[in-house]
Amino acid sequence: MPETSIIAESTITCPDCGFTATETMPTDACQFFYDCKGCGRLLRPNRGDCCVFCSFGTVSCPPIQMNGAQACCCTSC
User: What predicted TM-score, i.e. pTM, was given to this entire model?
Assistant: First the structure.
């Protein structure tokens, strides 16, 4: 089985102000909250998404990258 390369950075775009910031994603936990550096809005995952990177980022979180959509990094999504 080929080894999968994980992308560690994702660019988050605020749905309110459009501000973008490239952030390093945690590999061992979900990031449920993110403070927009443009307008200060507290971003939370959209319903059905496990983290802010899956909702607002250009790249899905590492657990999703490694194991697909069924591999949510949390137990509540």
Answer: 0.82
